[in-house]
What we know:
The complex is a heterodimer of chains A (113) and B (112).
Chain A: E1 5-7, E2 10-13, E3 19-24, E4 31-38, E5 42-50, E6 65-69, E7 75-79, E8 88-95, E9 103-104, E10 108-112
Parallel strand pairs in A: 2-10
Antiparallel strand pairs in A: 1-3, 3-7, 4-5, 4-8, 6-7, 8-9, 8-10
Chain B: E1 4-7, E2 10-14, E3 19-25, E4 32-38, E5 44-51, E6 56-59, E7 62-67, E8 72-77, E9 86-93, E10 100-102, E11 106-111
Amino acid sequence: GAGVSQSPSNKVTEKGKDVELRCDPISGHTALYWYRQSLGQGLEFLIYFQGNSAPDKSGLPSDRFSAERTGGSVSTLTIQRTQQEDSAVYLCASSADRGGEQYFGPGTRLTVT
Amino acid sequence: KQEVTQIPAALSVPEGENLVLNCSFTDSAIYNLQWFRQDPGKGLTSLLLIQSSQREQTSGRLNASLDKSSGRSTLYIAASQPGDSATYLCAVKGQAGTALIFGKGTTLSVSS
Lengths: 113, 112
């Protein structure tokens, strides 16, 4: 079956612009996670959605970052007024339930110039 | 705060060798532990998931063990092949409804 998909695969934007990154989880998966992978920093958690519950936003680095998940499926991560330090690979993962194995998408490479 | 450490950071071996990758975590109260593989410029591929009640999991040439009390996991790769060259990441989940906490990975290079 189809895995987790993300779009775009690459995004180059100018400092100060807003960007939207999209994630399509595996069908039927109730849990969805966003992570960020920066050079030398490893993978860090950003935000977690579980069903209809309020998301866990504890990993968002600033109020310029937000995310939503519509209809319990597709999720969009929005970064406002992008900064150069936002350059990273943004990875989305989903799991069948809150404790299950996580499956990752291919990521979106964001470059802020 | 949970911290995950992977040693070594890089490893080079000749084809056919058996090898062990190490992962340690500071808080033994984990829900599960997952090993991933990441190829350059790609996303993460899940290799093995070990629940906190389990001691090991096997898939093909891969065997992962978990010693929760000592905060350690190992990934054993038998008869390594050049296609095994990748970065291997260990990640722990503290509770069912939380995100994974990752180590920085071990980059493996298998030469033919």
